[in-house]
Design goal:
Length: about 240
């Protein structure tokens, strides 16, 4: 009896803490949107960035953050948030604005093909696709069980279930390779993860690169077809 009371008390506290957190989040977002509507963009961005840092960014919020940074002339940060928005929304309309900034600043690395669009769509609808596949697999499991009770071997259902399992595994693991945007001018690329490594090239901000891996200080990236290294502080991973 005491154990049940403790469990219920714990669940009650957890519920109210969760609801309190959501309420505070909604209040912060409402305040940020109000500042944005009043054209107090730097103040709004500060509030949006707080939510973004907590992993609570919505698609519309990312677009507003990109709009603010573009208006301030911070095109590298604007491109970063536009790419984050594209990943979340699969909205191809934003590509036109990205390409406009890329062309104006002679940037590279911004290639949007059908496969990247497919991955963006997959990311956007991942939860619903996973739910659908799980429901279908459960339904098939029940069907197979009933057929076995009738001494039948529904081989077709077995094959379909294997296909669904492979699809579920693919949805869980199929992700685009990590990419990042150079956010500082005079960013030096080096041949190794060391300040004493051979300098390779100096980049301006805004270029998009493929990120292979990172440690606490350095990121290993692909630039001009070669593996090079750049300090993490010069790069924002999308």
């Amino acid at each position: 009896m005491i154990y049940r009371i403790k469990v219920r008390l714990f669940l009650g506290i957890l519920f109210f803490c969760t609801m309190g957190g959501l309420k505070a989040q909604n209040q912060l977002l409402t305040h940020a949107d109000s500042l944005f509507d009043q054209q107090k963009y730097t103040e709004a961005f500060s509030k949006y960035h707080q939510l973004f840092a907590e992993g609570k960014a919505s698609s519309s919020m990312l677009l507003k953050m990109a709009f603010i940074q573009d208006g301030l002339g911070n095109y590298a940060d604007a491109l970063y948030f536009m790419n984050k928005y594209y990943e979340e929304s699969a909205d191809r309309q934003v590509i036109g604005k990205i390409e406009e900034i890329v062309k104006e600043n002679e940037l590279s690395g911004y290639d949007y093909d059908d496969f990247s669009y497919f991955l963006a769509l997959l990311h956007k609808n991942q939860l619903w696709i996973m739910l659908l596949l799980v429901v279908l697999m459960v339904a098939l499991t029940v069907y197979i069980y009933k057929k076995k009770q009738e001494d039948q071997k529904p081989m077709g259902a077995f094959v379909i279930q294997i296909v669904l399992a492979v699809m579920l595994f693919s949805v869980l693991n199929l992700r685009p390779s990590a990419q990042g945007i150079i956010i500082s001018d005079n960013t030096l690329l080096r041949s190794g993860p060391s300040a004493g490594a051979e300098p390779i090239e100096m980049l301006t901000k805004g270029h998009k690169v493929k990120v292979l891996d990172q440690d606490e200080v350095w990121a290993r990236i692909i630039w001009d077809g070669k593996e090079v290294f750049v300090r993490n502080g010069k790069l924002k991973v999308i």
